Amino acid sequence: MAMSTLRIVWLYPDLLSTYGDRGNLLVLAHRARTRGIDVEPMQVRSDQRIPHTADMYLIGGGEDGPQAVAAERLLDDGALNRAAEAGKPILAICAGYQLLGESFYANGRAYAGLNILDLRSDRGPSRAVGEIAGDAAPQLGIGPITGFENHGGRTHLGEAVQPLARVTAGVGNDGATEGAWAGHVIGTYMHGPALSRNPRIADLLLAWAVGTDPAHLPPIDDTWPERLRAERFQAVTAAQ
Predict the structure, then answer these.
(1) On the chain, which terminus has fewer CB atoms closer than 10 Å, C or N?
(2) Count of structural domains, the chain
(3) Using N-to-C axis directions, what is the helix angle for 199-210 and 23-34, rounded to 10°?
(4) Collapsing DSSP states into helix, strand and coil, what is residue 114?
(5) Residues whose CB is less than 8 angstroms from the CB of residue 126 and which lie 6 or more positions away in sequence, other chains included
(6) Residues spanned by the domain of 136
(7) CATH number at residue 110
(8) What band does 3 get if pLDDT is binned at 50, 70 and 90?
(9) What is the pTM of this model?
(10) How far apart, in whole angstroms, are the C-alpha atoms of residue 190 and residue 102?
(11) Domain contains 1
(12) Beta bridge partners of 185
């Protein structure tokens, strides 16, 4: 599948990169290259300007302090907001997911988010730690989701976003829904890394980036990802 180089930016790894979130970049690069798509992975630290010419943007999870710093610098830079407005695919995990909203809670107070997604996050009554699973929004075509969550927040969705999934195990946003999406932006509490456990989400992001339908991407061997998914779903079922 020949096409121009796909530029994927991993934002602020010096601030937001927990529980193997860097793996999302590796999964995307592997699945693109396996299909003959040239990939240029880029890591942009918090003291660097964000390139506006990238095709996809990723942001991971982190602790309260780095999350607050990341939000301030992203707001000052403005490139991620412009990318969302231009329809560029964005995947945000945990703390990165929260800061895409209107506001989030860290260091004992509320902070302004980027307002890319219509949601707000505050502090929950207890920490959500463990496996999370759910039935994804059918229009996304990504099947059931599986991941690992570790967060103290609760996220409340507005009318301009849809939940990524309905929770069947774990907490996610609030015990009922997990994550959110609008346009080409996906936010989730799933670590794991999320894309190693959910390769169809990776393919959805790739399809958005190259301007095609996921069904039109050449098939690749998903034997090992499917084995991982089956094992994780079995573990969740056994624990219930």
Answers:
(1) C
(2) 1
(3) 60
(4) coil
(5) 152
(6) 6-239
(7) 3.40.50.880
(8) low
(9) 0.96
(10) 20
(11) no
(12) 90, 182
Q: How long a stretch of residues is the chain?
A: 240
> What are 106-141's pLDDT values in tens digits?
999 999 999 999 999 999 999 999 999 999 999 999
Residues annotated as catalytic (active site), given as ranges: 94, 191
Q: How confident is the model at residue 1 (pLDDT cuts 50, 70, 90)?
A: very low
| Structure tokens given for 54 | 């990238």
List pLDDT tens digits, range 203-224.
999 999 999 999 999 999 999 9
The beta-strand segments (E) located in 56-176 are 56-59, 90-93, 103-106, 109-112, 119-136, 145-157, 165-169
For 8-59, the DSSP string reads: EEEE-TTTS--TTTTHHHHHHHHHHHHTT--EEEEEE-TTSPPPTT-SEEEE
C-alpha–C-alpha distance, residues 184 and 231, integer Å: 29
Q: Cα–chain-centroid distance for residue 139?
A: 17
- From residue 70, give the alpha-carbon distance in Å to each of 44, 97, 100, 139, 216: 12, 12, 11, 32, 36
Closest CA to 4 of 52, 53, 43: 53
- What are the tens digits of pLDDT across the range 50-108? 999 999 999 999 999 999 999 999 999 999 999 999 999 999 999 999 999 999 999 99
